[in-house]
Known about the structure:
By secondary structure, the protein is mainly alpha-helical. Helices cover 66% and strands 3% of the residues. It has one domain (2-8, 64-315). Helix 1 crosses helix 8, helix 4 (65-73) packs across helix 11 and helix 8 (191-213) runs antiparallel to helix 11 (245-274). The chain is globular. The protein starts with a helix and ends in a 5-residue tail after the last helix.
Amino acid sequence: xxxxxxxxxxxxxxxxxxxxxxxxxxxxxxxxxxxxxxxxxxxxxxxxxxxxxxxxxxxxxxxxxxxxxxxxxxxxxxxxxxxxxxxxxxxxxxxxxxxxxxxxxxxxxxxxxxxxxxxxxxxxxxxxxxxxxxxxxxxxxxxxxxxxxxxxxxxxxxxxxxxxxxxxxxxxxxxxxxxxxxxxxxxxxxxxxxxxxxxxxxxxxxxxxxxxxxxxxxxxxxxxxxxxxxxxxxxxxxxxxxxxxxxxxxxxxxxxxxxxxxxxxxxxxxxxxxxxxxxxxxxxxxxxxxxxxxxxxxxxxxxxxxxxxxxxxxxxxxxx
Length: 320
């Protein structure tokens, strides 16, 4: 629950329009001289090239295919709640991906609540499936990578696995924007979301290491034993900055894999515009194949994030 709530609060991407102060309204029109020469030139140019500029403006408004594709995977502000603190903008806006995180978290809580409503000694139905996943995470991921203290970190690993899995699967639902609703999108395709999830693993990894070895022992054993004393300061710096490569790997791996699949699907559909409408059966068939692969990738990426988190935690349980 802490993972769910904190990710919803802190993974909001700053909106593009809020990164710069609002433009001065007076700059919307060019300032003419005392005889209004600028205004006359603008009116004459508009009368002379009206149709051409209208057509050009229509093309600019329409935009390219690539722009429309990336528009579907990018985040956007739905409810602007940010505010300015001096010269710094505090981004608290509710964005499309934040809403989709809420939806994924809500579906997850409903599914888990319904599955665990009727517990039995011999599980069946949804409870059986949920128990299978939890036991797999506990026995095959947590215990094998962390060891004796696996029970302390299994709840976090289960929370991370199910939350990422539901966000990945939710992003595959074909619900477009409708009447103010921003539409369904993959929240894990937002690097801000994956950064926060990776930071949870990073912080928990350091806490686990200091609990297992002690605060001084953990940092003292950051450098492997057997390193010459002359190289110890250099190796400590290298190992210290190496700690940050782990959350970076978690961030990029999850973000890149989830956003890449969606872009490939959109480009395959767009082949009907690039080539001809007659290639629609082929492009749709390939897009369907990628979509089915995305279902598998959604599960695999949740598994990879969970097992790497368990591996990083397990590496801190013993000195080098």
